[in-house]
Design a protein that fits this description.
iron ion binding; heme binding; single chain; 3-stranded antiparallel β-sheet; globular; Cytochrome; 7-stranded mixed β-sheet; Cytochrome p450; alpha+beta; 45% helix; 16 strands
């Protein structure tokens, strides 16, 4: 039985047969690969819309859409689905700033993106290519002659963080502390732990922002202080909200994706060797990896009574977009469990509509370079003998520990 029925009293408009807790959101470590076991079972057994009692951190309820077409429609409908305060980051500590631009709605969202897009444009990110490659090579060089590595601790946790800290002008030597805060914010089910980490990050960012106000530097935080919206400079909450967005977005998603991707490559030497023998496949392979191994479940909040597949959703209720589930929708993708480098299928793993991921060009660059450098520097690698791969199931599906050998 893959689902447990909900125990708590349900709202009047929620039919009992649609309410359940799902193992995919249980926020614990399991040893069955969720992409191979839980997600296909969900597509086989669940209706297109389900009331999932443990979908939001803290085991809070919301609606899960399992069909890619329904999710696409929701992501393009900013009138009926808001992102305002969606992550409950500020609310959790009794404040009301928004994560910018992620939690903003039109029309101000449009103005924020106008100020931001040019800073994350493909050519800007491409200009960082050699810097990103150098970071990857330095990390790989430290273990390539050893014949084994602790992939998460020695590569995938550090690599994206190096890049984001470079971009923001934050000190690399604080990385260990940043990692602790990030884990407490993004992987804990305990709202007190999350709240304490939010406070720490907020206070730290405010210090850095103030330092730039006093002594501007040639870094991104200094640039944010010059951004305008609606004919005025961004206010203090907006500057903080944007720095916070880059902190949580830049420190975790690529790390989680890399763990999922390299677990797959280590288990499929034929796929590794395909990329090794023809590195020109890597750009398309990364798009397929984004479809198949997307880690994040994100949310919208209904602004009015909405009906989907005959089911009423009430204002204020959460509706989930689970990219790992959508990326394997058999109604949308032919043979979704197969990882095919020539698929060229669209995916929503970097979002869709107005909230498409601001850092998508940087994320793609990081993933492409990580794969390129690994297959170039190392012979065929595999999961270390005797190592059992753990999978963390929750709002960010990831491999918390991965040992490779070659």
């Amino acid at each position: 039985m893959m689902t447990a029925l909900a125990q708590q009293p349900l709202p009047a408009h929620v039919p009992a047969e649609l309410a359940m807790a799902l193992p995919l959101f249980s926020r614990q470590v399991i040893y069955d690969n969720p992409q191979e076991v839980l997600i296909p079972a969900m597509h086989a057994e669940l209706p297109p819309i389900t009331y999932v009692t443990n979908i939001f951190p803290g085991d809070q309820p919301g609606w899960l859409l399992t069909k890619a077409e329904d999710v696409q429609a929701m992501l393009r409908d900013a009138d009926n689905f808001t992102k305002n305060g969606m992550g409950k980051w500020a609310q959790n500590i009794g404040e009301n700033w928004l994560v910018i631009p992620t939690e903003a709605d039109p029309p101000i969202h449009t103005s924020y993106r106008k100020a931001l897009n040019s800073h994350f444009a493909p050519q800007k990110m491409f200009a960082m290519k050699e810097q990103v490659r150098e970071r990857a090579r330095t990390l790989i060089h430290a273990f390539q002659d050893r014949g084994e590595c602790d992939f998460i601790a020695e590569f995938s946790e550090k690599f994206p963080i190096f890049i984001v800290l470079d971009l923001l002008g934050l000190p690399q030597e604080r990385m260990a502390q940043f990692l602790i805060w990030e884990k407490e914010m993004l992987h804990s089910n305990d709202w007190e732990v999350r709240g304490n980490a939010v406070r720490c990050v907020k206070n730290y960012l405010l210090e850095e922002i103030e330092a730039r106000r006093q002594h501007p530097r040639d870094d991104y935080i200094s640039k944010i202080l010059t951004f305008e919206v609606e004919g005025r400079l961004w206010n203090d909450d907006e500057v903080l909200g944007h720095c916070f967005n880059l902190y949580i977005g830049g420190l975790d998603t690529v790390t989680s994706l890399l763990g999922n991707i390299f677990n797959y490559l280590a288990s499929h030497p034929d796929k590794q060797n395909e990329l090794r023998s023809d590195p020109s496949l890597i750009v398309l392979a990364v798009e397929e990896f984004l479809r198949a191994f997307a880690p994040v479940t994100a949310f919208r909040i209904a602004t009015k009574v909405i009906e989907i597949h005959g089911q009423k959703i009430m204002p204020g209720e959460y509706v989930a977009f689970s990219s790992p589930v959508i990326g394997r929708d058999p109604a949308f993708y032919e043979d979704p469990q197969a990882v095919r480098f020539d698929r060229k299928a669209p995916h929503m793993s970097l979002g869709s509509g107005i909230h498409k991921c601001l850092g998508m060009h940087l994320a793609r660059l990081e993933l492409q370079i990580a794969v390129e450098e690994f297959v170039a520097a190392l012979p065929e690698f595999r999961i270390k003998d005797g190592f059992k791969v753990p999978y963390f199931v929750g709002n960010i599906l990831h491999v918390p520990d991965l040992h490779l050998q070659w």
